[in-house]
Specification:
The chain has 354 residues and is mainly beta. It has one helix at residues 11-34; strands spanning 39-43, 48-57, 60-65, 69-74, 78-83, 87-91, 96-99, 102-105, 109-113, 116-120, 125-128, 140-152, 158-170, 174-187, 190-205, 210-221, 226-242, 246-261, 267-280, 288-298, 305-316, 321-332, 342-353. The protein contains one helix and 23 strands. Strands 12-13-14-15-16-17-18-19-20-21-22-23 form a twelve-stranded antiparallel barrel. A six-stranded antiparallel sheet has the order 4-3-2-1-5-8, with no helix packed on it. Strands 7-6-11 form a three-stranded antiparallel sheet, with no helix packed on it. The termini are far apart.
Length: 354
């Protein structure tokens, strides 16, 4: 029994088959040719990495390698940088250029300007593909709101609400910051904690890593008998280290303090202030950790010290939402004798970032 017949193809079907095969081959070759090559960096050690340029700032390049993941390299350690993608470069002197493709080495190259020819090299790069606000257009706005709320019913009725809000607005010369922290706890319809802290800051950039600023702080803590503490001061800040995985900011300064406690006379004194803020991704992945401290030392009474210390870990749930665990240490040596000087709090909540 014969299931099929083996016959030679007729001439016209054969020609049609050849034409389709040739067209498909040319199309596949064109797609391969049009596919952009990955970005490439060559290090002084001789290593060559392929991947994607994520950006650059402060003389350091952020690069996502196909093999080793996200790395940070100083431009001094890069001998060759190449990208087939259109790129915007801002140099240390503020000059901005746009190129259709990037191919740079440590050998200086010429840039034609209105004042003549200027020479630049890799080590002169400040930012790659900067945001609009870094080019003098618009304002850079960021913020983070964290909420922790709990309710207990039954034998004990209690509720706790903790709010933490931080927002900033910045352009090329100035930055404004606002922080608000509040805790309101009740048990059997009676307050057991009622405190808030508001901070307003304005910074003037002196360089890429330094700034001068003024701060206003307002605080109240009913159960520490602090009716009101007002702090007005100036400080000098420096970003000691900056990378995608680690940042360290330190701001020492001086301030004038107006303090009013329950059943005590109003007190005014000069103070020494400091703030340090450490951000890192050392826990791996996208988990962000932060250690922040604000200190106030009474220069008229050196035994009087106030510290606000926070340890925060944020695990991202979505692009905007995160799970936040926060440990607070509030120390105030000026509270009455029957009140604990150190207040420890651990909170678990949800954050929203913009």
């Amino acid at each position: 029994m014969r299931f099929f017949k083996n016959k030679a193809l007729r001439p016209w079907p054969r020609l049609l088959f050849v034409a389709i095969f040739t067209t498909a081959s040319i199309s596949a070759s064109a797609q391969t040719a049009d596919a952009p090559r990955p970005d490439q960096i060559e290090l002084a050690s001789g290593s060559v990495l392929f991947g994607e340029i994520k950006g650059a700032s402060g003389g350091k390049l952020s690069f996502r390698s196909q093999n080793v993941g996200l790395i940070t390299a100083s431009f001094e350690d890069i001998t060759h940088l190449r990208s087939d993608n259109p790129t915007v470069i801002r140099f240390m002197d503020g000059r901005v250029i746009r190129v259709t493709e990037l191919d740079l080495t440590q050998t200086p190259f010429d840039v034609i300007t209105e004042s003549g020819v200027q020479q630049y090299s890799l080590i002169d790069i400040d930012v790659i593909n900067p945001e609009d606000w870094l080019l003098g257009r618009g304002m850079h706005k960021t913020g983070k709101l964290s909420l922790a709320y709990s309710i207990e019913t039954g034998n004990t009725e209690s509720s706790e609400l903790d709010v933490d809000l931080r927002a900033s607005w910045a352009n090329l010369s100035t930055r404004w910051k606002f922080e608000a922290r509040g805790e309101l706890d009740t048990e059997s319809s009676e307050k057991t904690k009622d405190k808030y802290l508001l901070i307003f800051k304005s910074d003037r950039f002196l360089s890429n890593t330094t700034h001068f600023g003024v701060r206003a702080l307002f605080e109240s803590d009913k159960f520490s008998e602090l009716v009101r503490r007002d702090v007005f001061g100036v400080y000098h800040g420096r970003q000691w280290y900056t990378s995608p995985k680690f940042n360290f900011l330190f701001e020492p300064g001086i301030a004038f303090v107006n303090e009013n406690r329950l059943n005590e006379n109003r007190e005014q004194f000069p103070g020494l202030t400091w703030t340090f803020d450490i951000n890192s991704r050392l826990l791996g992945g996208s988990t962000e950790t932060e250690i922040q401290q604000l200190g106030l030392w009474n220069l008229a009474d050196t035994s009087d010290l106030t510290l606000y210390t926070r340890l925060t870990a944020t695990y991202p749930l979505t692009n905007r939402l995160g799970l936040v665990g926060r440990l607070l240490f509030d120390y105030d040596s000026g509270v009455p004798e029957d009140v604990e000087k150190l207040d420890n709090t651990f909170k678990l909540g949800i954050s929203y970032t913009w």
